[in-house]
């Protein structure tokens, strides 16, 4: 008697679950671990953050008890200015101001650009998409530097009170800079959303009756987040440069509040007198932050988006 064996279907390999964004960032196996350039960028960012945070604990930027115009030494790492203030302590506080303003700018612009970009991409070629894109083009029509200087000139350097809300110079600077970044981020989010809309899972969710808000918040937003993390690092570098440039021109935080930009601006006459350290070292810290966040963005692009393998050797 012959036993008929029923054919068994070959096991279907399960689709690997998408890993959380945090795990993808810290998974060093996906980082170009031998890429000197990428790790150099990480080191620059760490050094900039240490100067901006721990550096403030080393000295007091307001004390006037040091000899004036002293070059760098073991006691005063970045030397002193003509008033006897510790340049390293002032540079550390200036780096902290640049860091907080830049971070606030990027976070505020992302919080506005993400929903705008996803809504525009979800309603591609619809009325909402056209309205959002025309609004972004209007904002982009005026260069960011010109717009920020125009607004800060109108509002002055003092504090503005609108009802219970108080807007200081720092807040106004963050809001103005963030408005300039919104079109940049929103266009990237819109393009990433359009790519996600072509995926089968979106059509399946729509057929199942899943609401638009849930699709955007629970599905599309997660998938467009990795490229935005990369762009946020690059935007941090631009924001540090923009804040430094505005402070250099006198449109940033008012003295005696130190920023990297106004430290460089105040050193003009002292450089001619031989005090090279007063502008060179704060400028080097600014370059450290700008270069570091740029290279960190490239490293995260390799890790999260599958960019070039290996990096620079």
Automatic annotation (TrEMBL):
It is a multi-pass membrane protein. PROSITE patterns: ABC_TM1. It comes from the Bacteria. Keywords: Cell membrane, Membrane, Transmembrane, Transmembrane helix, Transport. GO terms for biological process: transmembrane transport. Residues 95-297 form the ABC transmembrane type-1 domain. The keyword Cell membrane applies. This is Peptide/nickel transport system permease protein. It comes from Nocardioides soli. The lineage of its organism: Bacteria, Bacillati, Actinomycetota, Actinomycetes, Propionibacteriales.
């Amino acid at each position: 008697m012959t036993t008929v064996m029923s054919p068994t279907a070959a096991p279907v390999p399960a689709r690997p679950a998408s890993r959380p964004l945090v795990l993808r960032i810290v998974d060093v196996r996906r980082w170009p671990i031998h890429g000197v350039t990428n790790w150099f960028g990480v080191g620059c960012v760490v050094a900039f953050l240490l100067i901006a945070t721990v550096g403030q604990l080393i000295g007091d930027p307001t004390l006037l008890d040091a000899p004036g115009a002293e070059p760098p030494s073991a006691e005063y790492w970045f030397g002193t200015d003509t008033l006897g203030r510790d340049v390293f302590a002032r540079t550390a506080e200036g780096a902290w101001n640049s860091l907080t303003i830049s971070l606030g700018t990027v976070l505020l612009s992302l919080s506005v650009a993400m929903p705008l970009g996803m809504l525009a991409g979800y309603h591609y070629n619809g009325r909402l998409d056209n309205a959002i894109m025309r609004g972004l083009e209007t904002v982009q029509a005026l260069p960011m530097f010109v717009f920020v200087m125009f607004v800060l000139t109108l509002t002055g350097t003092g504090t503005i009170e609108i009802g219970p809300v108080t807007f200081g110079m720092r807040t106004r600077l963050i809001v103005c800079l963030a408005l300039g970044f919104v079109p940049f981020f929103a266009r990237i989010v819109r393009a990433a959303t359009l790519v996600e809309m072509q995926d089968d899972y979106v059509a399946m969710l729509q057929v199942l009756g899943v609401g638009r808000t849930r699709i955007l918040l629970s599905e599309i937003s997660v998938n467009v987040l990795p490229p935005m993390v990369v762009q946020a690092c690059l935007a941090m570098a631009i924001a540090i440069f923009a804040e430094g440039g505005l402070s250099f021109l006198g449109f940033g935080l008012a003295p005696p509040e130190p920023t990297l930009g106004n430290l460089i601006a105040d050193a003009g006459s002292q450089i001619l007198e031989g005090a090279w350290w007063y502008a060179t070292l704060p400028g080097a810290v600014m370059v450290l932050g700008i270069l570091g966040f740029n290279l960190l963005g490239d490293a995260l692009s390799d890790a999260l988006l599958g960019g070039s393998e290996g990096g620079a050797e």
